[in-house]
């Protein structure tokens, strides 16, 4: 982890704060590419992931923008309490949401604070001269971060705002937007889980191929109560042969931690990929939104923070 301090705090929108982070000695931070995020260890001990919301114009700084979630489990609320000069620790940038073909026509769709990784993508596409369209959906201009900066930015002609609570704008016509870009375009979408699920469903119905659909969730979709049933199972450690029981209401990561086996966990809901672990034997019951359908079908990986076992036991590559 890299020790940094809060260099600046900026209110970007209602309930959205942007932090500028840098080393105390102002030494350059590791570089990153569009779509990257950092893990941040907060003063209260929580580990959270946030997208880097702007490419580095100055290599000494990272910038993140965080929405204060009314249902915060302590992460976003703690971020909003940070002040200039406060110390935190961050990881080197990681990227599970990179631009796979930065010279290919691209459609960017943001929902709310999901705009953060897409801004860096738009910056990259613009610098390369790649044709792209950028649709930004939010409730209102008051709650949408970076609106003024985007309106005045170098790719302002590429961006369309959709504010569902403002009559002059209104909701995005998903079918129309997707229909304009069916052929030869890659889609990158980030935002609330239900928003992403709806857009991707419409894209598939319109004929978009799966390999052109790229998404990053900030939270897992809400699952109706009683849809998923927890049953106990045994988790085995491949290197030592140790076995532990994962009971109802327990996660694999919780059981392992109690027994002295540490797996880094951030989101606790299968969104971020931090806890990704190999499966040696057994059939995972995937409850994450991080792995692709192909990866889930292969059954070689699992997210211990939320997923379970379909079989009576599962052996992890630990």
TrEMBL record:
Its EC number is 1.14.13.-. GO terms for molecular function: 2 iron, 2 sulfur cluster binding; metal ion binding; methyltransferase activity; oxidoreductase activity. GO terms for biological process: methylation. Pfam families: Fer2. InterPro entries: 2Fe-2S_ferredoxin-like_sf (IPR036010), 2Fe-2S_ferredoxin-type (IPR001041), 2Fe2S_fd_BS (IPR006058), Beta-grasp_dom_sf (IPR012675), FAD-bd_FR_type (IPR017927), FNR_nucleotide-bd (IPR039261), MRET (IPR050415), Riboflavin_synthase-like_b-brl (IPR017938). It comes from the Bacteria. Transmembrane segments: none annotated. The keyword Zinc-finger does not apply. PANTHER family: CARNITINE MONOOXYGENASE REDUCTASE SUBUNIT, NADH OXIDOREDUCTASE HCR. This is Vanillate O-demethylase ferredoxin subunit. It comes from Pseudoalteromonas carrageenovora IAM 12662. The lineage of its organism: Bacteria, Pseudomonadati, Pseudomonadota, Gammaproteobacteria, Alteromonadales.
